[in-house]
Amino acid sequence: MARRIAVGNHKGGSGKTSATRNFAAALAEHGKRVLLIDLDPQANLSRRVGAKFDPSKPTPTTAEVIKSAIEGVAAQAIKPCGWPEPYASRIDVISSRFDLENRISEAGVVGAVLRLEQALAGADDEHDFTLIDCPPSLGHLTQLALAASDWSLAIFEPEFDGVDGALRLKEFVEKDSNRKALGNPDLRMIGYIVNRVRTNMGAHDDQIAALPETFGADQVWTPYIPERAADKDASDSEVPLRLVGTTAAKDQAALWATHAKRLIDLDGAA
Ligand SMILES: Nc1ncnc2c1ncn2[C@@H]1O[C@H](COP(=O)(O)OP(=O)(O)OP(=O)(O)O)[C@@H](O)[C@H]1O
Ligand SMILES: [Mg+2]
């Protein structure tokens, strides 16, 4: 059964989708099988892994999976990512599109928050990790992910608003009554990943210095991820970092390989 992880932050543009993509690539490079779920109506992850919704081949998307919520129905929405081998046979995707917005209005329906969990039952048994890319919100869509996940990870820029957004995710997850309402008492935060670090910014250094006290020293993952054009290049060209081809991209991929190894070790120890 897959270990399910919701990648989130209440702050937009903090690197959630990049982290999800980079984790998937690095886990696949470690030989792991990954299911990606795009739970953002922006569908940035779907595009960046070459699995954008294609009306000429209309595989069901996250919206239909959640709407149906029949046990295991998510299996019908799984397709391989659009990257070459070895990624294609190791990374699967459930894509989203803008109509995922329509699920948000169901937030008040009794039990609606459990719909992704129900739909996933058995669908990711053959995967090692299921990574869920959340929108910049703590609302219904992110709550669907949290209800279905074992763990959550926050990613943020070392700036006031980014750290604040990660802190709101932490507080949400760590509140007993929230986990109870999500039907997921064992959900926990496993880490805080610092992204887009700029070495020439004193403000970043100040924020980073305060992180151990805010999140707990063992919860702030190192290495920190620097800001590199390689990340944007990978996003624009819809390829994993290693296929961008530059030394900077390979260096960036090596940092994610370290984070992926930590995830694999945590999974093994759990
Ligand atoms: N370390 C990095 N260096 C350079 N660019 C980065 C880095 N991480 C992310 N980016 C770029 O920053 C932009 C925002 O990142 P991303 O889309 O991953 O954030 P997000 O948190 O998923 O945003 P949203 O809240 O809209 O879903 C993207 O163009 C991405 O390619
Ligand atoms: Mg995103």
From TrEMBL:
Domain AAA: 3-177
Presence of keyword Cell inner membrane: no
One Pfam short name: AAA_31
Keywords: Plasmid
Gene3D superfamilies assigned: P-loop containing nucleotide triphosphate hydrolases (3.40.50.300)
Coiled coil: none
Protein name: AAA domain-containing protein
The organism of origin for this protein: Streptomyces sp. 44030
Organism classification: Bacteria, Bacillati, Actinomycetota, Actinomycetes, Kitasatosporales
